[in-house]
Amino acid sequence: MTTISQLTCEYRINPLGIDVLQPRLSWQMQCNRRGAYQKSYQVLVAPTQHDLQAGTNILWDSGQTASDQSIHIPYAGPALKSGQRVYWKVRVWDERDHAMESDPAWWEMGLLEAKDWKGRWIGAPFWGGPRTSSPAPYLRREFSLQKPLMIARLYATALGLYECYLNGFRVGDDLLTPGWTDYTKRIQYQVYDVTTLLLPGANVFGAILGDGWAVGNIAWFGRQNYADRPQFLAQIVLTYSDGSRETIATDEQWKVSQGPILEADLLMGESYDARRELSGWLTPGYPDSKWWSVEVFPVQNVVIAATNGPVVKRQEEIKPVAIHKISALQPRWIFDLGQNMVGWIRLTVCGKKETTVTIRHAEVLNPDGTVNTANLRTARSTDYYTLRGGGLETWEPRFTFHGFRYVELQGYPGEPTIDAVTGIVIHSDMQPTGKFSCSDPLINQLQHNILWSQKGNFIDIPTDCPQRDERLGWTGDAQVFARTAAFNFQVAGFFSKWLRDLEDAQSADGAIPNVVPGLLDWSIGIDGGPGWADAVVICPWIIYQWYGDVRIVEDHYASMRRFIHFLDETSHEGLRCYADFTGEHGHGDWLALDGSDGREGGTSKELIGTAFFAYSVQLMIKIAEVLGKKEDARSYARLAGKVCAAFQKRFVRLDGTIEGGTQTAYVLTLAFDLLPSNLRARAAAELVQKIREQGDHLSTGFIGTPYLNWVLSKAGYLDMAYRLLKQTTYPSWLYPVLQGATTIWERWDGWTQEKGFQDPKMNSFNHYAFGAIGAWMVKVIGGIDVDPDRPGYKQVILHPQPGGGLSFAAAELQSLYGMIRSAWMLENNRFEWQVIIPANTTAIVILPARDLSLVKESGKPLQEVDGILFLEVDDQSVVLRVGSGEYHFSSLLKLN
User: Fold this and answer.
1) What are the tens digits of pLDDT across the range 32-66?
2) How far apart, in whole angstroms, are the C-alpha atoms of residue 848 and residue 655?
3) pLDDT of residue 892
4) What φ, ψ does residue 63 adopt, rounded to 5°?
5) Nearest to 858 by CA among 827, 819, 832
6) CA 386, CA 272: separation in Å to the nearest integer?
7) Rounded to an integer, what distance in angstroms lies between the CA atom of residue 846 and that of residue 870?
């Protein structure tokens, strides 16, 4: 049976409040039949669900369109208005000309013009200082409904953070709204359906504000000054049953007071005094005569933009696995949650009024069992809860988050049980899409650690680390990890939002900073350097490849052009050798082990810069071709030739060796195809020799490591790539696993048996950059890869390459077309492989086999199986092209 499901608009199911004027529609064709595909489609859009079902008042009818495209179909009907909801469905004809129809779906537009905002920016008459928070403002306003209500929408945003309430109920379940942007250019807003929260007669609209990214601490140099205090902008648009409308907006009628939240800072923590709770403040008739009148602020001269990507939400809860006591005189209780996580705890406590519990967070313990907070630097990462007394109390913070595995409670009344603490895990609300496992439990734990580092660092933006005073969107970290990220979760919307931030951060001359969003008084206008700034080209290309999203490269093409122009203008005859804000040439091969300073590595920054210059231009050729910009493609081809020639002249010796001779120097030269073909084998052999000289260990940093195993396996050194992956002694991916790591470490030597902890000035235990190996694991071990010529997994490349003594591996990916699965077992040189290819796609299947006659599918010789097209065979593999469906291949393995 064939069904049409998973209808999405701009990657979301039934999105509420978008501002994409021509949103793109996608669906999945679900069918187990082999070779099933979409032959044509028809999209219908109507103003109401009744009209859609009846076929009346149709806004847009695509007509029966002969196409197998089922993702990113742009809406082409009349322009939609602010707040307008429309309903849509799709009819699909399969390869047999059988028609099937989806259930209806909808999307709703947000506020599309500045004049749609009726509210004014309001806030409290109190504020904090350069290093101190102030109590969180509690705001309220009463209003009345005199007529029957049909629909109500809340539009809200803030400079700082906000939570909204109606009649005592929290509105929505979003966290840390409105998210982080460069607030001098763009502020996001959220939209909520609040129809069911309103009552006939008297109602109360309330809000609580926090400092967040706009007002509070973001990094080590103090609080941000986008504003001196949190400000709130909101309006409820009421549509009555008689068709009339009314807007309840933020204005001078609102009142404000202080409540139990005495401070709330993302880095420092939250202090809550339950004795100061405002009982009844969200009910009509509450006596607020002693509350202050709000202050009204000038209109923000920025874009107020809809939130088109995922917001942060709570995702799961973790119970501690152990608890121990430190000191008998002033006891401290240490809870081990068993997992380095990001979020906060829910505290459960019973005790006397005025008792204050101090809650400290840490990733690791000292040898004496106390929490080690040295690596947090200036981030206090401490919450305080003062009891109201009188019974069991439960509390969670609102406007902070921490990175931690261990929680220390001090001042807890009595002796806590393990139920006193529950970990609340938060991250951007991305759909999990990938699974990977194999026969090696250490590699499985590595995959677990990669996944959890992504969870902990995808908090509205891709941060470098979530625990210390540096939770910043480092561009280099994001670009090296983007491909791995796109396997684990559906990150198209997440990166779409961040790439808009990246373009907002670009300077007039085209430079891209090293952190995005940029920070006031620090990163604005600077150049991030090689491998960091190049995210402006690399990340959109990855999202295009992974999701078939042409619009993302189209939207950012002008920004990419400015960046390439900047590189060309600041290079010297093709060599990228300009200086950034530090007077250096970027960050080098960050945290490589072959340098003298322990940070930037021993690889020439000029080599790294020129290699990435060439790579970014190579990608621009492809992007220009995708967009049909043929003259641009020719121009970039000439520039790529110039840069490649400059690289070879400066860094490549006649015998194929590379100046400097570091592992990363060879990796980048090979990865970015900067050598004549006759020298590649020599360079690859030199790389392997460099690894062997290190006792079969890597020495690469953030720049070289993501490409290392790719280069080795492509060059015919699959055995060495596996050897590096499975290496268990320092430095290696599995060394932290053997030390009990549950996330990826920032440094190879974050902790070693010989030296203990690294320098706490920079030693994060949750930092995903080295987790970029995950993409190689999925492709080479699991066997799932994109086809660059048919992106978005319209055609899948399935090519597992067993090795390293592994006896089985399985990878699954929920693509935009449906489930892709590759699961193989190896026993006595017999290779058994289960493959699932979603409907409306095809796959190139590459089997490790001796010859075609030894390959079977479901027990039959290939020539007896319909729908399998033989492409080629050599002494290493058999290459087939197959349609959708489930297959069971078997063959004798060709051993390397």
Assistant:
1) 999 999 999 999 999 999 999 999 999 999 999 99
2) 33
3) 83
4) 70, 165
5) 832
6) 6
7) 10
What distance lies between CA 182 and its chain's CA centroid? Answer: 18
Strands 364-365 and 434-438: unpaired
**Cα distances (angstroms) measured from residue 21 to each of 57, 77, 237, 363, 808:** 20, 10, 21, 44, 47
Cα distance between residue 544 and residue 706, in whole Å: 19
CA distances from 543 to 26, 98, 533 (A): 16, 33, 17
What's the one-letter identity of residue 147?
Answer: K
Residue type, 748: W
User: Coil, helix or strand for 807?
Assistant: coil
Residue from 331, 343, 326 nearest 383 by CA: 343
Q: What H or E segment, with its residue span, contains residue 441?
A: helix 441-457
- DSSP codes, 681-731: HHHHHHHHHHHHHTTS-----TTTHHHHHHHHHHTT-HHHHHHHHH--SSS
Q: What is the mean pLDDT of the chain?
A: 96
How does residue 777 score in pLDDT terms, banded at 50, 70 and 90? very high
User: How large is the average pLDDT for residues 543-563?
Assistant: 98
Which residues neighbour 120 within 8 Å (Cβ) at sequence distance 6 or greater?
233, 249, 250, 251, 252, 296, 297, 299
SS3 371: strand
Q: Give me the residue label for tokens 């019974």.
A: 391
Taking a C-beta distance cutoff of 8 angstroms, is the pair 451, 347 a contact? no
Match 């110039």 to its residue by tokens. 642
**Statement: residue 369 has pLDDT above 50:** yes
Other C-beta atoms lying within 10 Å of the C-beta of residue 109: 23
305, pLDDT greater than 60 = yes
Euclidean distance between CA atoms 36 and 813, whole angstroms = 19
> Structure tokens of 866?
């319909």
Cβ neighbors of 680 (< 8 A, separation 6 or more) are 656, 670, 715
Residues in the chain: 896
| 395 Cβ contact partners less than 8 Å away, ≥ 6 residues apart | 272, 274, 346, 347, 349, 385
Find, among 429, 377, 435, 442, the residue nearest to 403 by Cα: 377
Tokens describing residue 593: 């082990």
* Closest CA relative to residue 463, chosen from 498, 510, 435, 493: 498
User: Is the per-residue pLDDT at 281 higher than 70?
Assistant: yes
**Could you say which DSSP state residue 788 is in?**
T
CA nearest to 12, candidates 454, 305, 425, 311: 311
Rounded distance between C-alpha atoms, residue 285 and residue 280, angstroms: 9
Contacts 24+ apart (CB under 8 A), 320-328: 320/407, 320/418, 320/421, 320/423, 322/418, 323/416, 323/417, 323/418, 324/369, 326/369, 326/370, 326/408
Report which of 498, 490, 578, 579 is spatially closest to residue 538, judged by C-alpha positions.
498
The SS3 of residue 296 is strand
What is the C-alpha to C-alpha distance for residues 416 and 10, in angstroms, rounded to an integer?
A: 47
Statement: residue 581 has pLDDT above 50: no
Nearest CA among 752, 267, 758, 699 for reference residue 465: 267
Q: Is the pTM of this model over 0.70?
A: yes
Is the Cβ–Cβ distance between 156 and 121 less than 8 Å?
A: no
- Residues linked to residue 361 through DSSP beta bridges, in sequence order: 407
Angstrom distances, CA of residue 371 to CA of 344, 375, 405, 677, 746: 16, 11, 10, 54, 19
**How far is CA 476 from each of CA 413, 512, 533, 537, 774, rounded to the nearest angstrom?**
46, 11, 7, 12, 17
Distance of CA 388 to the CA centre of its chain: 39
- Cα separation, 303 vs 306, whole angstroms: 10
Task: Encode pLDDT of 853-872 as tens digits.
Answer: 889 999 999 989 998 998 99
Q: Which DSSP state fits 782?
A: I
Amino acid at the residue 269: G
Q: Could you write out the three-class secondary structure of 416-440? A: CCHHHEEEEEEEECCCECEEEEECC
Query: Would you please indicate which residues are annotated as catalytic (active-site) residues?
Result: 470, 746
**For the segment 438-492, what is each residue's pLDDT rounded down to a tens digit?**
999 999 999 999 999 999 999 999 999 999 999 999 999 999 999 999 999 999 9
- Gyration radius (Cα) of the chain, Å: 29
